[in-house]
Design goal:
67% of the residues lie in helices and 0% in strands. It is globular. It is mainly α and 112 residues long. α1 packs across α3 and α2 crosses α3.
C-alpha cells in the first residue's frame, strides 16, 4: 500500500469514527487520531489485526475511542473493558480468528 493510499485510508477511518461518535467538527481530529492509534496498539497487543476482519476491527476501535473521548476511560485497557457488550463480543471473536486464522463457530470452537 502506497503512502497516499495509507493516508486516504486513515482519513476515511477518521471520518467513519467521527460519524460513529457523532462528532461533526475538526477541532478534536488530532485527539481522535491519537485515541485510534492507542486502540490499534492495544488490539495489536491482544493479537488482533485489522486484515482478518476490517469491519469488526473498526467497530471495536470506534467504541473504544468514543469511551476515551467521552472521558469514561483513561487508557485503552479500561476503554476495552467499558465498551458496549456487543463490541466486547466482537473483540473476543476477532482475537480467536486472529489466533487460529480460521472461522470460529458460534459456540466459540474453531471451525475446520
Amino acid at each position: 500500500m502506497s503512502s497516499e493510499e495509507k493516508a486516504a485510508l486513515a482519513e476515511e477511518r477518521l471520518a467513519a469514527c467521527k460519524q460513529y461518535m457523532k462528532v461533526d467538527y475538526p477541532d478534536d481530529d488530532e485527539l481522535i487520531c491519537g485515541f485510534m492509534d492507542m486502540c490499534a496498539e492495544y488490539l495489536a497487543g491482544a493479537g488482533c489485526v485489522r486484515e482478518v476482519s476490517p469491519a469488526m476491527y473498526d467497530i471495536i476501535c470506534y467504541a473504544m475511542v468514543l469511551n476515551m473521548y467521552d472521558g469514561r476511560a483513561d487508557d485503552a485497557q479500561q476503554a476495552a473493558e467499558s465498551v458496549p457488550k456487543i463490541a466486547r463480543q466482537f473483540l473476543t471473536q476477532l482475537k480467536l480468528r486472529c489466533q487460529y486464522g480460521e472461522e470460529v463457530a458460534a459456540d466459540g470452537s474453531a471451525g475446520r
